[in-house]
Specification:
The protein is α+β, with helices and mostly antiparallel strands. It is built from four helices and four strands.
């Protein structure tokens, strides 16, 4: 009797665990959350702690600098405008990444007069020093 009861209880527990975990996995794959707003976060929490700073800076490569610039530019000026400016030109000058949109040459006056984006990002800490778009 004890063995039958124990076996039935174990079978029930395993079936509950398996069905719950499958539902959880399905929910996670279809509803992954990128971030959660949290009003309790504050800059005061870690004021006494020293920050990690990579030797090569937070923005060590041109690829990262261009991705950051593109992300911010897309949010401000829209995908249609910024996509026309690819490929971006990039250069590192005195520890500052300079990223500039490409102005196409040719007969298409609409593209020629659409303007050009320009972004400066400090390599050491990722600060966006300057961001503009000519007209």
């Amino acid at each position: 009797m004890y063995r039958t009861y124990f076996f039935a209880l174990m079978l029930f527990a395993m079936s509950c665990t398996n069905s719950t975990s499958k539902v959880g996995e399905d929910q996670q794959s279809s509803q992954q959350i990128e971030y959660v707003m949290n009003d309790s976060l504050s800059t005061d929490f870690y004021t006494d702690m020293k920050s990690y700073v990579p030797a090569e800076g937070f923005i060590p490569t041109a690829d990262i600098a261009v991705k950051i610039a593109e992300c911010v530019l897309l949010e401000i000026y829209g995908k249609e405008s910024i996509e026309k400016e690819k490929p971006f030109s990039v250069n590192l000058v005195n520890g500052i990444w300079v990223i500039e949109g490409h102005i196409p040459n040719g007969n298409d006056s609409a593209l020629t007069f659409c303007g050009q984006s320009y972004v400066e990002i400090r390599k050491s800490n990722g600060e966006i020093i300057k961001l503009l778009h000519t007209k």
